[in-house]
Amino acid sequence: MLYIWLNYAHVCEFWDDSKGLTYEQFKAVFKKKLLDKNVKMYIIYLNCNPIGMIQRYYETPSEKYELNETAIGIDLFIGEIEFCYNGFGPRIIRNFIKKHVFNHNEINFCVIDPNIKNEKAVKAFSRVGFKGYKKYQEKDTYLLMKLSRDEFYL
Fold first, then answer.
1. Most buried of 28, 62, 102, 135, CB within 10 angstroms?
2. Do strands 71-78 and 141-148 pair parallel, antiparallel, or not at all (unpaired)?
3. Model confidence over 41-62: pLDDT tens digits?
4. Could you give the CA distance from residue 64 to residue 78 in angstroms, rounded to a whole number?
5. What percent of the chain stands above pLDDT 70?
6. CB atoms near residue 30 (< 10 Å)
């Protein structure tokens, strides 16, 4: 299912985790991710139907995010196209942050770094309360966004 989703055009445009990989290569890559104790991956369900994937990871203090404390970073995609671009994203993000990010009392920030070209994702994160504050360049340009616990519970 993940392999199929990651090869859909609307997903692989911004997630290249399986681009050009055979299914066997993909399984090896994701097995490694699943064993990474820093990353927790979840399937997003709507009415008992899988529609996407969301993950969280610990982001240690770094210059990249300009944070001097540990935060939790998240990434997600909706694989099933009929659930894209109709308001599900912000609801999924809010629910996930409440249950899997700020349920940790020591975590005061959630971070994300969408591709700047992914305007729909930037808009969805903004609707939840994330604020963009810095761009960085790798293979593309990304927008660092963060949300504090206090802003989330306003």
1. 102
2. unpaired
3. 999 999 999 999 999 999 988 8
4. 26
5. 100
6. 17
Between CA 152 and CA 133, with CA 78 as vertex, the angle to 5 degrees is 40
Tokens of 135: 């761009």
- DSSP letter (8 states) at residue 70: -
Residue 65 has pLDDT above 90, yes or no: no
**Token pair belonging to 23:** 């299914």
- pTM for the full model? 0.91
Asked whether the beta carbons of 79 and 154 are under 8 A apart, the reply is: no
Q: How many other CB atoms are found less than 10 A from the CB of residue 142?
A: 18
Residue found under tokens 């609707």: 127
Q: How far apart are CA 74 and CA 93, in angstroms?
A: 9
Which tens digit of pLDDT belongs to each residue from 101-124? 999 999 999 999 999 999 999 999
Give the whole-angstrom CA distance, residue 143 versus residue 131: 10
Checking if the pLDDT of 19 tops 90, the result is no
Closest by Cα among 100, 77, 99 to 89: 77
